[in-house]
Structures
1.
Amino acid sequence: MKQKKFTKVLISIAIAFTFAVSIYSIACGVWYDPDSEYVSLFDKALSDAPNTRPFYYSYFSLYDDNSFEADNKTNLNEWKSYTSGFAKEPDISLVVYKLTANQLDEIKNSLISNKIPFITDSLKNNSFLQYLITKKDISCLNYLIYAKNCEPYVYVSYDDMWNYQPLKTSTADSLIDLGLLAYKQTTNQFLKLRYAFQAQRLAQYSSQIEKNKNIYDSLVNPLTLKSDVKYWCMSLYAASLLKSGDQSKAAYLFSKVFDLCPRYRLEAFKSFKFFKTEENSVIALCKNNHEKAVFYTIMAYYTELPDTMYINKIYQLEPNSLELEVLLCREISKIEYQLRSIYGSENDISNNVLYTAEIINAAGLLKQRIAQIADAGNTANPALWNMALAYINYLQKDVKTADLYMAKINQKALNTKLSNQYNVLKVLVELIRTDRITTETETAIIPYIQKLRAAFDYKKEIFQDEDLYDESHKNHIFADRAYATLMTEILSRAYARQGDKVKALICMSVGESDASFYPYTYYSGGFINSTTFNLMDKFTGIDDLRAILHFMSNPRTTEFNNFICNHTGIEIPSLVELIGTKYIRLSDFGNAVSILMINPEERKDDIGAYIDSNPFGDTISESHSKTSADTVIYTKLSFARRMFELKNLLKSDPANSASYYYQLANAYYNICYNGNSWAIVQYNRSSSETYNMDKCATTNDYYTAKKALSYFIKAIKSSDNKEFKARCTMLAAKAYQVQTLGFREYWSEKPLKMEEYFVNNPYFESLYKEYRKTAFYKQAIGQCTYLKDFVADYKKR
Amino acid sequence: MRRISLIFSLFLLISCTHNEIDRGIYFWKSNFKLSDIEKDFVSKHNITKIYIKYFDVDIDANIGKPIPLATLSFNEKPTKAYQIIPTVFITNRSLQKLNKPDIEELANKICQRIIDMNSHFGIEDIIEIQIDCDWTATTQKKYFLLLQNIRKNNYLEDKILSATIRLHQVKYMDETGIPPVDRGLLMCYNISNIKDFNVRNSIFDIREAEKYTDNLSDYKIPLDIALPVYSWGVVFGAQKFKMIINNISLKELENTENFEQVNYNYYKAVKRIKINGYQIDKNEIIRFENSAMEDVIKFSEKIKLNSKNFTVSLFHLDEKTINNMKNNEAEKIYKSFN
């Protein structure tokens, strides 16, 4: 039962940590990490298809929202060609994007007046300006000036973003006319196209749909030169068609832009969101197989559920399409996404048999289709297809077929990405070869694990701020994530299933700490805040923890064992402390002392302040702050020693047993949830944890303080001193109330019992009836409002 | 416990004089146009102040500077029956990389944008501006500097500058500091960590709220107060926070064809479904949270602010939220402060 529970918890907590999803619809602005949605061991980015990252599978529409060609590379190259290669791109970029219309106007006017233009020192060496001045290219200068005058109407500067005044469209109209006039006056097609673009864009931004269309039809289309700008114009034209209702043609043109213009590829893709048109009407407009394949690719990128229909169509039209590979990876991601429920707890597995079968069926259909394509051998990257098949067969636990496809792959011909994927698959396929991980399995997989680890390097950063932490995830590579995932989701759980908690926890910790993917923490980070530590603390017994300590402290017999011990995040001192803490929880103070002696220096962190309180002191009112009783500082070791000593003194010095019972009682009270020294037995304390306690917790002395109560009762019985007995009775009443923690369950079927316990607290009753004439009672009733209210109520009964 | 509450309340009744309160409400949508139900609510409850979010300020990843987002549009002009208090929400990350001149510039831009928006929509007679930011230890200095600069702006010369204060910022005022503004708005909602699966109600839990209100009287600037009247569903997958669904109704979750109640306010999806356009997968859990009106009222009765004149506001003005309230709960909240 314990093993099953451990495995269940290990699985559920491990997978819970995988889902580092943090979408906040209140304006918190946290970046969403799409790779944390589900367990993924197949690289979405395996294909070399360019400009496809936004289209990797993600639960929320786009995997990445960054546009392509932010550096305007294509446009700068065209300008470079305009200067016959004379001007350099950085210089062109400065002139085209940074200089003002006034600066260029001054240069133009000087050239017109046959004067030498004044150029500042910083621009003297600008090769593009040198070209324009040397060639006296007034036409080009005119165009650049015109383009800059258009900017305020189409480009929002930082200051404009804050400016709430809407743009005046009447001025935009006069600029359009100027552009059209300039188009007619210039003979240079390069400049003509750009004039037409500027005018067309102004028309679009001022919602003049017909003007936009006319400019495109009459001025852009007739131009014969090849230019990226043509696609910019096409995109504007398609937008106007969309607005005017010609959806099919708009879709067709957007798909051309998507295919041929990286700068507007993403915008063209997003425009498809608004389409409600029949696919066939768009296909009818396509001139060749490639255009049809592109359109189907876009449709496929919009398909959320598993579906090989578009893969089939695209393959028929263009078998060597690189985007086919991206689509293949998407389909695998979809299977992985749906499989995440299988990676959940055992309860989920047993309850979702049908769901599991559906997923495996979907994987089977995909496998069938991919196998036909892979076997035909006419794709751009056969190794990728074979790897996909190996992976699907791994998911179906078909080791024989998985081996078959792995054997088809030529390792030496693989690039880095494919090589990393290959190494992951080698590990996975090996793991399904037998029912259990054996030494032979470990020997077989360790070379590939080592290769994966060597494939990435990272600087482990711990972030205090949630926003900065999330930004760091954007740059992780597959090998890094896959390594962590193999360790935590595959190996760790496999070891847990076969009862090897030692390796289960060590591997879990390797994945958490040895890759940059996992340190998901708002605090100081480190082993104590890790999932592994949480599992050790909450769900691992002392014997297993000692086994880990032994395993890590002694010579390693295999390369695999050596690797995991060298790469784990488990810290021996913290492990020793944890074992000691668990002994303290069991009141086994002798063993606590002997284990804690291994590492007498204890961790001091932000909760160390709580250990500064005296666990053997008593207070009438609740307080976690330091009080006058806190004169001695205890560590876990010195606490365990003192408890051990007190228990021995009970036997050796029975005459003073009342005092010893009292000290023990205080200690047990102070190490319960309500006490001042809870940090001796727990590593964190949350005010919300009492709302959701399971049955086990309500029998846990940490939440009931029954030990404290029993010792206070013994102290009372062992003494004749009324003042002392009064004090102990009061403290017994406090301990008695702790049990009401278990009744803070709002969803309990029983009525709220806190008041019942308060009203019927037998120790308050005893205190009043037997000790109300003591000096202690007089002090207590002045300090404790609970007692005061109890007595007031009791007197009325 | 009940007896203690009674005694405590009685004590308050005997010993305290009446407070003079103004009634306010927050409007947190991007288009200002009140439905008849919303107008009726404002009128019926004698609400004289509406805090309206004019825009957010967040960092633009491409340019690395803070920009305005989610700007409000007035689709109808507010009447003179209530004051408008422009509110601006600022994220911490928009402050992190700013230096002193940047902060001065940002303060000016915020004020100017408010002026421009008011001018464009004909909003007049503004007497208060509110800034909303859940500042942290790392952004405290910069945020306070921003507030100082806003305070110094000519536009604020004859106006009140207020800032939202979270409960933990009052309780730990020595560590978190007191913002340099004229008034604070004590936000008594979103108290607990919404992402914690075990938190029963992150919107409002009276036991949690009460832990933070012992030292209100020590707070150095006068406090107004805002209380919640809204609800939402918090979605978890494998006990890990996934998203929030606004305007989800309990009835939807009580539909046993789609959900199974697994605990007091936790509902597990028994199949893959869509709610309000959001995809919920099988076995994902939705925690339904509302503002537990009885508790909000109880809390309102007990809490003691640090001045006699203050504004009590509800979050937030929305037709669905209004329809979910019953038995004149809003009026009870307002009245509990008298």
Note: The mean pLDDT of chain A is 84.
2.
Amino acid sequence: MHSIPGRRVIMALFLVFLLLPIYWLVNMSFKTNAEIVSTMTLWPHAPTLQHYKRIFTDESWYSGYINSLEYVVLNTIISISVALPAAYAFSRYRFLGDKHLFFWLLSNRMAPAAVYALPFFNLYSAIGLFDTPWAVALAHCIFNVPLAVWILEGFVSGVPREIDETAFLDGYSFPRFFIKILVPLIASGIGVAAFFCFMFSWVELLLARTLTSVQTKPIAAIMTRTVSAAGMDWGLLAAAGVLTIIPGALVIWFVRNYIASGFALGRV
Amino acid sequence: MDKTVNQKAWFLVAPVFLVVAFSAVLPLMTVVNYSMQDTFGNNQFFWNGVGWFKELLDPSTDLGGRFLASLGRNLFFSLVILAIEVPLGIVVALSMPRQGWTVAACLVILALPLLIPWNVVGTIWQIFGRPDIGLLGYVLNAIGIDYNYVSNDIDAWVTVIVMDVWHWTSLVALLCYAGLKSIPEAYYQAAQIDGASRWAVFNAIQLPKMNRVLLIAVLLRFMDSFMIYTEPFVVTGGGPGNSTTFVSIELVKIALGQFDLGKAAALSLVYNLIILIVCWIFYTVMTNAGAERKVQAESEPAVDFKASAGLKPVPALKPKEGVA
């Protein structure tokens, strides 16, 4: 690939621009509140782990991370397992209403979460799922399932049809072909789709906050508690923020080689 | 490659249909139901027909004024961030290192802002921009610029826009990078032999190859910025005054703040309709581009083969590694 002149400088500047606010958050999480409020220091002069210690020892704090991860993982599993057969169907067959169905799915990916907040609240209260991880996991399906279908359809289309035909000639039944042959072939695509489901479920707050109250509050909602009568607990807020970045960073590290094609939704 | 007609495929699609219908159709029916009614509390509802819709589209009423103002702000916001993020994303994609460990490092750092929960993105910028404890606010004030996003409209706008650029330019850059990577090296060699200038290479080779991904980027960014809620809500709370109140913020205020179900539902439907129309344009343009690509591919099959092979580079590289 041919690049432009001065590319190293541009890239370096952009990366600094991306990292500077994150650095500031990390920096603050290691400072005492007294240091944050009183002086402007570029690095913590009296580094402290007190904020992290508090999060890891206080159950009302660390349970938030567990709650969030719980519905994110549930949602990823549901999304991928229902999207896989559908992606195969969209990629290989024409059937009544296929194009309309695909468009309808896609339009749900674009629907603003704010529109659904209140009706979801009513719906999940009525069926007794309110304040469980299932409610959030199912609610997040509205944008993750269409996305998973879309990405996986691209990857399934990359598998030559001859492979299906050969497998069926060899006497494979459909479920066996699906699990033994197709799934391993598009494993990287499944990884990319799972990454996207994880990402969009992890970063969403509005629905997650609306559908939970006490038992399963996500970490994002708990973070708003740092405002108290004594003012903002900035250090604690920063530490909680840093800890929400870590799962995402870990996930990126594992899929870094697939990021580029994944972001093009398998369609470049 | 023609697809075979097979109605049994519906069995494969049924799970998706059920899951999405459960989360989309049922709530949407509730919204339609509310939008036609008025309530004075106590769960007593009255038929209101299209009253709310009339009010919503009439700028002289309170509801209509608020809706149209937030819609205008939101459109302006979307246009500004597109005008910044798309060119910047292209430049960043062109600046990606060619090989080595730096590629992976750059990709990971680029993707990092995308995986930060949206309210934390808001928190990061809230802290970063504060004149008393934030680096940005402190430095700007120290060099003599009076910057305070809590009390000044323009500062609040600039903060929200810079935050969105910080948050989402990477998406555009990564999409463009994926597009650039699919260009076969032979194209560049041909250009070099012809003595093409840097600009000619960009204009004639790279830009056309990025068309499709740029389309995805522009439309994804438009949709997502059009329904932005969490980040500006955390940073500015929609203020100062109403200056950064976007449509979603207005909607949540009406629905969950005032519990004005009828008005909120009517707003939701109109909002959804706008998104649906844009989405339809997106889908049509995408499928047309796909059809065009197919025609193009048939006329030059070798190129298309290479482009699609770029998706799964591992098997192509393996024999080479074995030799080495």
Note: Chain A is about 75% helix and 0% strand.
